[in-house]
Amino acid sequence: MTKKKGVLDLIAENRFIHILLSILLGFLVGAIFLMVMGLSVGAAYGRLFSSLTSLKGFSYVVVYAIPYIVVGLSVAFSFKTGVFNIGAEGQYVVGSMAACCVSILAGSLPKPLLIPLCFLAAMAAGALWGVIVGFLKTKWGINEVLSMIMFNWIAFYLSNFIAGLPAIKSDGTAEATKNISANASTLLSKDFINSMGLAPTANWGILVAIAMTVLVWFIIEKTTLGYELKAVGFNRHAAEYGGIGVNRSILTALAISGALAGLGGALQLMGMGGRISIFSSQEGFGFAGIVVALIGCSNPYGVLVAGLFYGALMYGGSKLNLEGVPTQLINVIVGTVVFFIAISVIFENIKRIKLPAMGRREAAKQKAAEKEETK
Amino acid sequence: MAKQYVDMNTPVIEMRNIVKKFGDFTANDGINLTVHKGEIHAILGENGAGKSTLMNQLYGLLKPTSGDILVRGKKITMQSPRDAIEAGIGMVHQHFMLVQPFTVTENIILGTEPRKGVALDMAAARKNVVEISEKYGLSIDPDAKIEDISVGMQQRVEILKALYRGADILILDEPTSSLTPQEIVELIEIMHNLTHDGKSIILITHKLKEIKESADYCTIIRLGKYIGTVDVDKVTENDLASMMVGRKVSFQVEKPPMTPGEVVLDVKDLHCLDYRGVEIVKGLDLQVRRGEIVGIAGIDGNGQTELVEVITGLRKGTRGQVLVNGTDVFNKSPRFGFDHGVSSIPADRQKHGLVLDFSIEDNLILQNYGDEPFSRGSILDRGQIFGFASDSIENYDIRPSGSEKRPAGTLSGGNQQKVIIAREVQNDKDLLIAVNPTRGLDVGAIEYVHKYLVDQRNKGKAVLLVSFELDEIMGLSDIIDVIFDGRIVSSIPGEKATENELGLMMAGGGKKA
Description:
The complex is a heterodimer of chains A (375) and B (513).
Chain A: H1 7-13, H2 15-36, H3 41-50, H4 55-80, H5 88-105, H6 111-140, H7 144-163, H8 190-196, H9 205-222, H10 224-234, H11 236-241, H12 246-273, H13 285-295, H14 300-318, H15 329-354, H16 360-374
Helix pairs in contact in A: 1-2, 1-16, 2-15, 3-14, 4-9, 4-12, 4-13, 4-14, 5-6, 5-7, 5-12, 5-13, 6-7, 6-12, 9-10, 9-12, 9-14, 10-12, 13-14
Chain B: E1 7-22, E2 25-37, E3 40-44, H1 51-58, E4 66-71, E5 74-75, H2 81-86, E6 89-92, H3 104-109, E7 115-116, E8 119-120, H4 122-135, H5 151-164, E9 169-173, H6 181-196, E10 200-205, H7 208-214, E11 217-222, E12 225-231, H8 237-245, E13 263-273, E14 279-289, E15 292-297, H9 304-312, E16 319-324, E17 327-328, H10 334-339, E18 342-345, H11 349-353, H12 360-363, E19 375-376, E20 379-380, H13 382-395, H14 413-427, E21 431-435, H15 443-458, E22 462-466, H16 470-476, E23 479-484, E24 487-493, H17 499-509
Parallel strand pairs in B: 3-10, 3-11, 6-9, 9-10, 15-22, 15-23, 18-21, 21-22
Antiparallel strand pairs in B: 1-2, 1-4, 4-5, 7-8, 11-12, 13-14, 13-16, 16-17, 19-20, 23-24
């Protein structure tokens, strides 16, 4: 057995390399699909990332990324605190609709008042959506994953219902709400956008997303609240024994996570969307948030980067048909990436069960060493 | 123990100069082990000394870096446990690997089911199991479900499972760690039955008493190094202990006489239900005063676990009072009890005592994270927390040093317990409850835990000790309360108790105190 570190060794020890590798594999599988379809891999991937070569393209990526970052934070926060917020989708939808209603019904309020009001309404709605599920769980022990999935649908139909109300529905023929008040818009000024050559939907929502990233990191790492929530997440028995209110912590975690998802909805609406359509299916921001949280290792700063990466894929993906490539290719790549990230977790668990007496790291070393021996 | 069944001319296992390295860390450094036919061979070492690593190599879970393994004189290389099983080696792990909803028979035959055509031949399976259990005197109910039988019975099933697969060399990993004293006696008898039949047993343990009672030879490992193999009849427990830890160990806890002060814990007519909703504590009265250790002796399942859970606020009782310094903490939250003077070393250190994914420093402030100096407002003061952890690691000899930021789950069991003790002792509450505080620890760590319990008593704190180890109860307690069927049935001064008398009272033969 050698002292040299094997590749597997490195992957097992370093989560970052692990994820990079998963992403690489995602693109590899994507490339295989492209080749099978007889399309040029170079042209497709070139187009996918062409956005990153210009300021305009990059500003598009940032705009796309804003909701993914904030919803990703929501899911990452829930992971850290031991609840799996698969309900971010619903929280996003009610948050977005709450902001929309406020901006339409109180549209005459001045900008400095209306925008914070919209944010607050969205966060309150998202938090409420999370807390209801938390209440069902802590009061009657109803599995949160099931009720969250149902609440995603409740949110979806509620949103469509509200969008059809006379006070909210568009005056024209569009199957959508009225446009939000200009006073609720987070768009940068037209002059600035034109002079810099940015995307027409460039907005300052990214600053909110960055602020939230720092805030979430601060709560998790630096506050007693974060300590409590993590303790409950990792081991609720020990937390309870240590005097932490477990039920209260679960509710708090879901409220914060829900508020973040709701805020994600508001940021998307007030920066990019401008109005909410009556949808025929769920938009999937909440589920994208799960992917972003996974790629970002549930670390707030990791989520920030992962959100930008996801935004780049989504924006670049929308341009793929220019090369005759189906945009579904992005789903193939993202699916593969998630698959390989998830499979690594399974792999680690198997090792842990098989070699209980050894540390996980030792087990990985052992495995790597054996591989080398058999070569 | 006369070596009546040992055939010194027939070595069945020889491990020669075994070296096992994990990266730069050497877990086994030149270990030698020879086990003969009909022999019970104990492997003794502190937690983390390399016992399990050695056995995992013998069972094909790990491959030695260098050194040879010979089975019945033939050198073999094992790729997996399957090879070990084929060579006639069976292993009973410390944590059983049984399918809970399956019956005893189903578990034993799992993987080697007898068939009739494509169908499972359950009748033949049951017959085989009964035969083999009678042959070795391991009586079991072949139709009982695992989830319904005791831990001792589950262990028999594990042993039968190994025998069923044709093992004649059995590795038992810490087999007594979860058994009651009676079950331990039975296990030793079973081991002797097996060696009588020509089987060989390797016993991994750190309990010296059991080695003296059962083993023929003992190999001692310290910090991965081979210390020696001794004839158990020719050494004392003290000799074994000092070989294991490398220094003199004292079993006798120095306990200066103390006059107990006022009552700290006063439990009155306590009732509570167990997890099935059956009343398990049935009108229990108990007092612990300042400057005394009250030991609760009893067989598992007589209500002691639930009693502690009610006192610490983890379980709701149905009736009664739990006064701590005059305040009733009955059916209040764990926080309330803690704020009014209750601290505890919980029975299950990994479930209640520690957040294994948290660092040592975060575990050390589990109850105090919200208080100064560890936080101000709602902001944690990382500098203070780190400083507190550094001091605790040094003062309480938590190893390895410099592990403030390491997850608690990476420490050995003994050091995990030290983290809990450091925390609870520094909480400095009037009442300290310790439940099986030395379970699974080696003698060095046990000595350490006992010292801190006695220190708390000497400082005028009230200490309630619940333990299944009678030696521990008798060695530490000023007063021994015997619990039976949910009540304290006798209360006797610690120095007057004898093992026989206690055993009788624990079995329900005591008079009402």
